[in-house]
Specification:
three-stranded antiparallel sheet; alpha+beta
Length: about 180
């Protein structure tokens, strides 16, 4: 858990910048809290200070409260990279994005390992509103390889997608 105000402000700005503008405030709050890096009191204090410093905006749209990052907020993002180590920042942003997508669009990402005879299968896919839209299986000879592949699916999803595209199309350039 982050406890320094500048770290909390930095991770919150990174998450908002990744998710986009005019975010539902309640869903954003849930997504940021789901990272496990920020507690509720710190989140409210952080958003208040970010709004006061004109780094984010918070506005009412009917009964909804929307928020997003301002141009000024976007301009200082490069300076904030030193506040949160890359691995922690990337994992938090990815986790918040998945959580936010699930809340807003009913999208659920999953990855699991199943034993299939002598092999281990890594199964990864996407459900939208409870319906499976895509699922891939990759076979591995050892459980260790399967766990490494599962970790790649969670931490480098674009690389996995590129590899699948390369195998379907035969275009090795997708992998590069």
């Amino acid at each position: 858990m982050l406890n320094k105000p500048e770290e909390i402000r930095a991770i919150t700005l990174f998450i908002i910048s990744y998710l986009g503008n005019e975010l539902d405030f309640g869903n954003l709050q849930s997504a940021v809290l789901a990272t496990g890096l920020v507690d509720m009191t710190d989140f409210y204090d952080c958003m208040e200070s970010l709004n006061r410093d004109n780094l984010v905006f918070i506005m009412k749209n009917g009964k909804k409260e929307l928020c997003g990052i301002t141009k000024k907020g976007m301009s200082i993002l490069p300076e904030l990279t030193s506040f949160i180590p890359d691995g922690i920042r990337e994992e938090a942003v990815r986790g918040a994005w998945h959580y936010y997508e699930a809340l807003v669009n009913g999208i659920d990402y999953y990855t699991r390992i199943e034993k299939d005879g002598e092999d281990f299968c890594v199964i990864t896919g996407v459900n939208v509103n409870g319906k499976n839209t895509v699922e891939t299986r990759a076979r591995f000879k050892t459980e260790k390889e399967a766990f490494e592949a599962k970790n790649n699916c969670k931490t480098r999803p674009q690389a996995v997608i590129n590899t699948i595209l390369a195998s379907i199309t035969g275009d090795v350039n997708f992998i590069m």
